[in-house]
Amino acid sequence: MSEIKVDEVLCINSSILIVYYTPGQCWQFRIISRSGGIFGEQKIYYSAAAALRTGLEWMRDEW
Prior knowledge:
By secondary structure, this protein is of the alpha+beta class. The mean pLDDT is 92. Helix content is 24%, strand content 40%. Strands 1-2-3-4 form a four-stranded antiparallel beta sheet, covered by helices on one side.
């Protein structure tokens, strides 16, 4: 069983941004849209702050 650490959960304009850590993929983010779609990238971020910053940029640019 893998260990996942959730660092941030933010709700912005009815979409949810989640920043989390997994041992194999380091820090990641995912966005759950109002319609239920899940978005993100398979990039590795070496800090929670970097993943959060990129996730917020995605939300600003796309939503």
